[in-house]
Amino acid sequence: MATERKALPVIDKTRCTGCGWCVAVCPPHVLSLAVANWQKTATLHDGPGCTGCAKCAVRCPFAAITMRRIPDPDGTR
Ligand code: SF4
Ligand code: SF4
């Protein structure tokens, strides 16, 4: 169990337009839109609740979501 990994969505806030498509397709509803600096961006508000299904990444029309495996100490770019 300890070696089990899943991928979590990482949202590139410079690409995200706040369109909300990822929020709509997420089956467990762990994505939401947050407003910062007058700009809406998607945010993962419940990482443990994410199943790693990648539907959000597939649906995003702006390629703002990258699935990244965790936990991985060297997983940063
Ligand atoms: S689908 Fe992509 S662009 Fe739209 S809110 Fe989600 S991450 Fe942002
Ligand atoms: S990978 Fe699946 S469960 Fe996780 S945030 Fe994206 S759509 Fe939701």
Number of continuous helical runs = 2
Please state roughly what percent of the residues sit in beta strands, choosing from under 5%, 5-15%, 15-25%, 25-35%, 35-45% or over 45%: 25-35%
What is the strand arrangement across the widest sheet? 1-4
Low-confidence stretches: none
Bound molecules: iron/sulfur cluster
Report the biggest beta sheet as strand number plus sense, adding barrel if it closes. 2 strands, antiparallel
Under CATH, the topology is which?
Answer: Alpha-Beta Plaits
CATH class bucket: Alpha Beta
Query: How many individual domains?
Result: 1
* SSE run: EHEEHE
Rg, alpha carbons:
12 Å
Mean pLDDT rating: 90
The coarse silhouette is: globular
Report on the structure:
The protein is an alpha+beta fold. The chain has a single domain (6-70), classed as Alpha-Beta Plaits (2-Layer Sandwich), CATH 3.30.70.20. It has helices spanning 21-25, 55-59, and strands at residues 6-11, 31-36, 39-44, 65-70. The strands form two sheets. A two-stranded antiparallel ribbon has the order 1-4. The longest helix has 5 residues, at 21-25. The model has no long low-confidence stretch (mean pLDDT 90). The site of one iron/sulfur cluster has 15 residues, from helix 2.
